[in-house]
Amino acid sequence: MKSRYEELKEKLYRLGDLSLGSIQKRMLTCGDPDCKCARGEKHGPYYYFTYTDPETGEPAQISLQESEVRELRKRIENYRDFKEDLKELLDLEVELRKG
Asked: Pfam family example for this protein (predicted)?
């Protein structure tokens, strides 16, 4: 149990950058009645990073360049791994303290 505890601590230190949120991929219409999107061929894809604004607690979004999506996905995955591993680490710490 102690070796798993140390392994998790080390892993958490090496995770890298974290982001809390999600990526939305959208196909959009422009509103021009003569455009191809009015006939069902939408524009896009467009990518958005959605998150909860830490100051207001309200949902927020930021548009992304397609070139940013891959790195941001990795950061979001890192955050998910961090949460899972931190919970396991804290559970192990409680068990280790119980003896």
From this structure: DUF6788
Residues 6+ apart with CB under 8 A from 49: 19, 21, 22, 23, 24, 61, 62, 64, 72
